[in-house]
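2024-03-11 09:14:02 DEBUG pipeline.ingest accepted 1 chain
2024-03-11 09:14:02 DEBUG pipeline.ingest length=330
2024-03-11 09:14:03 DEBUG pipeline.predict start
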Amino acid sequence: MKIMVYDVLDYEKTVLKKLEQELEIEFCCSTENFLPENIALAAGCDAVSIMGYSRVDAQMLKTLKEMGIVHLSTRTVGFDNIDIKAAEKTGIHVSNARYMPANVADFTVMLMLMLLRKVKISVCRSLVNDFSLDGLKGREMRSLTIGIIGTGKIGFTVIQNISGFGCKIIAFDKYKNKAVEEYATYVELDELYAQSDIISLHMPLTDDNYHMINKDTIAKMKDGVLLVNTARGGLMDSEALIHALEKEKVSGAGLDTIEEEDGVMHVDIGAQILDKRSLLYLKQFPNVVFTQHYAFFTEEATESMVRCGILSLKYGLEGAENPYEVTRSN
């Protein structure tokens, strides 16, 4: 079994070496993104694995099929970088990675607390020896209503985590999770917008929820609401968020992901001129905590993602049941 692995990062190399021996798989590795220009590197391989940096369109999927490759995995939870509909039409099996939800859930709660206690402002002041308290008065989570949109594994774990603070928790999901009802109350989405002091997003990006946080939905929210996004950047309309921050409709945002992050996240751009205007503008707000899409980045999770990304291909190639496949039956 031979697998072409694109987008290989330094921290993945040790895991891949271990899997090569453990699973008796031959890996052909490249640090390059998966592109039309280098798709030929996969010639002679049985499957391809990528990361979220690579964009896979219908033509690339067609080329893979012509090369005899029908199994593709992404070593990430998100898979909106792959044209899933085209994959299903072409007959390509696509799978993603999984990890335990604690890493992103913990990070989400951290962002909530940083916003409530104005940590960014405090840290910036301390760097210039300003230890005053002016403007740093925060709020306690126990007195707030927290709205969680998306109650899958990560959203549910966030709910469990914040339940210990004594806050009121409300939630929305098209597909209700019975276990959530021990900690939170399901409400309609508009009700969640209207009642929540903090709104946190926890769902994959789809055509249906693209820019679900926009000028119209923000208008339905409480004045001074805090927004947290550790899910997918495209869930939020950056321009609408900027406008709401300027008008103080939104009093702060914790963003581990943003729609303009392609080509920037996980890269040292140094002194390069950055043409991501909304990204640059958002991160300069004193009440916006902006991080480099690394809520997932723990020792435990990174190994799990590589392992899942490879195991899913092995399952597919062997004709076994593949719990990681995201395409419908081809």
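2024-03-11 09:14:41 DEBUG pipeline.report The CA atoms of residues 174 and 238 lie 24 Å apart.
2024-03-11 09:14:41 DEBUG pipeline.predict end
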